[in-house]
Amino acid sequence: MDEFMKAAIDEAKQGLAEGGIPIGSVLVKYGKIIGRGHNRRVQKGSPTLHAEIDCLENAGRVGSYKDTVLYSTLMPCYLCSGAVVQFGIKKVVVGESVTFPGGPEFMMQHGVEVVNLNLDECVNLMEDFIEKNPKLWNEDIGEL
Known about the structure:
The chain has 144 residues and is an alpha/beta fold. Helices cover 44% and strands 18% of the residues.
């Protein structure tokens, strides 16, 4: 597994350890991580602090995003897919889309390359969380 997806998984595990939802993300530019984040909706009482948004926030203003790659342990939802398209991120690498399909078509329609690694580790992390926390998960994806 590449170092960037491993870093995203580490972020997801940190979120879980904090009592949150185990989704992690990193932003890479020229082969270097410039931002890290994890879903902190629970920790911060936020409706929008998904892993990708937290990652972008932590990266700060980076100017152009055209040479960046966003890694996420889970296929980005439409909120996060919208941020990818809005900022002109051209490539997204995801750990899995089994537990949540997200918005890959939306991103691809806007010229984003989406690479789904279908990693068992990411699927298992989410399946275990969803099984133990169905109400919290349904809140996260807007299905309460």
